[in-house]
Amino acid sequence: MLKVNVADIKAKLSEYLDAVSRGEQVIICNRNVPVAEIKAIAAPRTGPRDLSPMFPGATFMTDAFFEPMTEDELEQWYGPDVSPARVAERPASYGKPRSRARKRKQRS
Description:
alpha+beta; YefM-like fold; 4 helices; 33% helix
C-alpha cells in the first residue's frame, strides 16, 4: 500500500496508475490525512455496456422518430399558444450588430 499526498499524485499520476495496474493500492492523503483510495477495477469491460436492464422492453428509436408530428402532437408539445411552424424560424439576433460593426470598420 502506498500513501501519497495530493501534490505528489498530481505530479506523478501515471506512475501511480502503473503501480495500481500491478496490484498496488494507493491511498491519497490531504495534509497526511487519508481522503481517497485508488485501486484496480475487478474486471475491465471488453465490449459496449448493456443498457437494457435500465429500459426493460424499450425500443430506443423506431421509424416513427423520422416522421413529422401530427397537429395534435405539436399542440401537446408546444402548447396551444405557440405556432409550431414559426418556432425555429426566428431570425438570429446576433447577426445585425456584427454587420454594423463591419460597416463601421469599412468607413474608417
